[in-house]
Amino acid sequence: MRRSVLLIEDEESIRELVTDYFTQSAWQVIEAANGEEALELFNSCPPDLVIVDLMIPKVSGWNVCRQIRYQSTVPIIILTAKSEEENKLLGFELGADDYVTKPFSPRVLVARAETLMKRVDNTVGQEDPIISFGNIKVYERKRLVESGGQPVELSYKEYDVLLHLLRHRNFPLTREHLLNQVWGVDYFGDPRVVDTHIKNLRKKLGADACYIRTVFRIGYKFEVES
C-alpha cells in the first residue's frame, strides 16, 4: 500500500520539486499551501507522514505542528530556512521527529522520510512485549505508552528516548550516547535537544517521571530498584 505524505509548503516551486521526488518513490503526496488548508486536509485525509514548513501563511508551521501533535503521533519533519539551534529545539519540543534546513536535497528528504517510516513498519504484525514501571505500560512494537490504562501521547523521538533509557535501566547514559542512538551518528545539532525531550517526557509521564534521573555532568538514567 502506498504511503501518504502531507506536504505543507507555500512556495509552489518547492512543492512541485518535492512532490516529484516523493511520487517517484511511490508516495502519495497531499499538498497544502497554508496552515489552515493543511489542518483541514490532515483531519479529512490523515497521512502517514507530515512535512511542514515553518514560515507558511494563515496558520504558522509552529501552530500546525502543535495542533497535529496534540491529536496524533504521526511522524513530523520540519522544513524551514531557519537554521538557528533554538528554532530546532523548539521544533523538537513541539513534537517534531526530524528537522531539514533549506536549501536541501529532495533526494535526502525522501531518504530521511523512508528511514523514519521504517520504525513504523517494524512494529506491524508482531507480538508486543510489555515493559511496566509505576503506573506506566510500554508496548514496544506498537510504540504505545499507557498510564493507568490511558494513552500517553509521545512523539516518535520521545518514545525512542524513553525506550532506550528503559533498555539500559540503572546505567547512566551520556547526552552524546542518546544522540548517536536515537538521532543517529550523522546528527550534528545541539546536544540540548536531548534535554528538551527529557523535559517533555517528564511532563507527560507525570508522577512516574521520577524514574528518569539526571546524572550530574553525565546525562540521564532510568533508575529502578534491583
TrEMBL record:
Residues 128-224 form the OmpR/PhoB-type domain. GO terms for cellular component: cytosol; protein-DNA complex. The keyword Cell cycle does not apply. One of its GO terms (molecular function) is phosphorelay response regulator activity. The modification 4-aspartylphosphate is found at D53. PROSITE patterns: OMPR_PHOB (PS51755), RESPONSE_REGULATORY (PS50110). It comes from the Bacteria. SUPFAM superfamilies: C-terminal effector domain of the bipartite response regulators, CheY-like. This is Two component transcriptional regulator, winged helix family.
